């Protein structure tokens, strides 16, 4: 039996009633299991994780995207996370009994459905990208919701599905297939966003840093801190502890302390065990020693 994971990100992290409406289509659906949903008020965003039979997951997520397009108005959206749509990004991750090519095909099926039924412009990204420049989500989302009108005037940014104009309230959506990643944020005890930006630039791959780290700065004004927000795109090659130590080291250059960190959404157990083994200095340790 094929199993796929899907992690749609919705641009609502404050209004619990709206969040529940968006998540409801993912509950109690045969062949679909809602694993987790985590809202962040500062980001004004909720990250949802579902798993199950590919076609059942696709249909349930399609319904959730439809609800999001009805209850979220991007014209009024404010948050610390980059975004350009009500359902901002929707990746499929092959888990069992399916290839990356199968996940790509699934993402294209959903993209066509969303474009036709909801009149939302759809950009395929990561493994599903139809052009090399669309592989990177940050490039696809550059300009965010506020810059969509101008972006869609450029023939180079014609959507893969749907209209060539943004949805008046739901914006646009990026749909694709990718490997598992870890969304990881590290807290800095400074409100200075320039420091967080410099640290993020140092460690991310696009600026000459670690191959499997994508990073950026985020302000968290309610806590008077900033964050280095990261996607670890291959935790087996760039581990959580390596990212953590790299940020700590760079923070010292600016007289700033790391005060904590957070994982958003689900995380492979192997990645956490690897980090524990590193900090405990375990010798001759392997995963088969874990109960």
Automatic annotation (TrEMBL):
Its EC number is 2.1.2.5. InterPro entries: Formiminotransferase_C (IPR013802), Formiminotransferase_C_sf (IPR037070), Formiminotransferase_cat (IPR004227), Formiminotransferase_N (IPR012886), Formiminotransferase_N_sf (IPR037064), FormiminoTrfase_cat_dom_sf (IPR022384), FTCD (IPR051623). One of its GO terms (molecular function) is glutamate formimidoyltransferase activity. One of its GO terms (biological process) is L-histidine metabolic process. Residues 2-179 form the Formiminotransferase N-terminal subdomain domain. Keywords: Cytoplasm, Folate-binding, Histidine metabolism, Transferase. Pathway: Amino-acid degradation; L-histidine degradation into L-glutamate; L-glutamate from N-formimidoyl-L-glutamate (transferase route): step 1/1. It holds the Pfam family FTCD_N. It is found in: Cytoplasm. The keyword Metal-binding does not apply. It comes from the Bacteria. One of its GO terms (cellular component) is cytoplasm. Its main location: cytoplasm. Residues 180-291 form the Formiminotransferase C-terminal subdomain domain. This is glutamate formimidoyltransferase. The lineage of its organism: Bacteria, Bacillati, Bacillota, Clostridia, Peptostreptococcales.
């Amino acid at each position: 039996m094929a199993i796929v994971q899907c992690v749609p990100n919705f641009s609502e992290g404050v209004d619990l009633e709206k969040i529940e409406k968006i998540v409801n289509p993912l509950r109690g659906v045969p062949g679909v299991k809602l694993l987790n949903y985590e809202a962040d008020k500062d980001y004004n965003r909720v990250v949802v994780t579902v798993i199950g039979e590919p076609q059942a997951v696709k249909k349930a997520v399609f319904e959730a995207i439809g609800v999001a397009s009805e209850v979220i108005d991007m014209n009024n959206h404010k948050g610390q996370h980059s975004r350009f749509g009500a359902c901002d990004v929707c990746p499929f991750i092959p888990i069992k009994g399916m290839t990356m090519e199968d996940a790509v095909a699934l993402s294209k099926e959903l993209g066509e459905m969303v474009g036709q039924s909801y009149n939302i412009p759809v950009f395929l990204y990561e493994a599903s990208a139809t052009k090399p420049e669309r592989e990177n989500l940050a490039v696809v989302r550059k300009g965010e919701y506020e810059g969509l009108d101008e972006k869609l005037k450029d023939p180079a940014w014609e959507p893969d599905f749907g209209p060539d104009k943004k949805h008046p309230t739901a914006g646009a959506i990026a749909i694709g297939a990718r490997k598992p990643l870890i969304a990881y944020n590290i807290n800095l005890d400074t409100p200075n966003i320039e420091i967080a930006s410099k640290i993020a630039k140092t460690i991310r791959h696009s600026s000459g840093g670690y191959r499997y780290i994508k990073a950026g700065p985020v302000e968290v004004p309610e806590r008077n801190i900033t964050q280095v927000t990261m996607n670890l795109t291959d935790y087996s090659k760039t581990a959580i502890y390596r990212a953590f130590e790299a940020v700590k080291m760079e923070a010292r250059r600016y007289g700033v302390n790391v005060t904590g960190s957070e994982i958003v959404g689900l995380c492979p157990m192997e990645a956490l065990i690897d980090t524990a083994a590193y900090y405990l200095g375990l010798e001759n340790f392997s995963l088969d020693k874990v109960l």
